[in-house]
User: Fold this.
Amino acid sequence: MTNSNKKEAYKVLEDVLKRAQGHSIQNPEFKALLAEAEKARLRLWSDVSSEIERERQEQQRLQAEARQRAEEARRRQEEERRLAEAKEQLKKKYRNAPQSAKNALNAIKKLEALTEVGVNYANYSQAVGVAWGDVKIFIESSEGKEFPELCRLFAEAIAEHKKAIDFWKLSIEARITDPPPVQVYWLTASVKLKAADQLLNQ
Assistant:
């Protein structure tokens, strides 16, 4: 008998003996058969015990992995639910943003529009100062403190325009006749502006 057959025979005998437990068996022939089945089960045990133990451990491992996957799935679902709630709360918050936030956004948009149509240093410098004034009012207000993400984006956008002014000024002082390559600062400012716009208009 192969080990596989021995294992199957052992399992059959064990199942029969388990079913017989708890029953009051009076038939002497049946009792004798159960006794022989028990002896056979014990003889087979020495041959199949290690394999059955390996199967038991493998089953426990698979069950533990299944529980772990289920727990990970539950955690992912919980995290997705939490993120969805946070996103919805953020949307609701920005849908009710104050007018001062929209004023600051529009100020930077006007500044960006000025760079798109062409501007000289003097006018650009003045326009940045005006835009920063509107932005600073919002950032330093009590309303602004309720929207830290927006304030950060506004401040970073204006900071890029200030860098452009500084670079442009250095070009003038160095008597460089070619237009200064300030577009890199304008592009970075535009990225910040778009992010702020998405927050306010999501």
Q: What stands out?
A: DSSP finds six helices and no strands in the chain. The chain has a mean pLDDT of 84. The two ends are 73 Å apart (CA to CA).
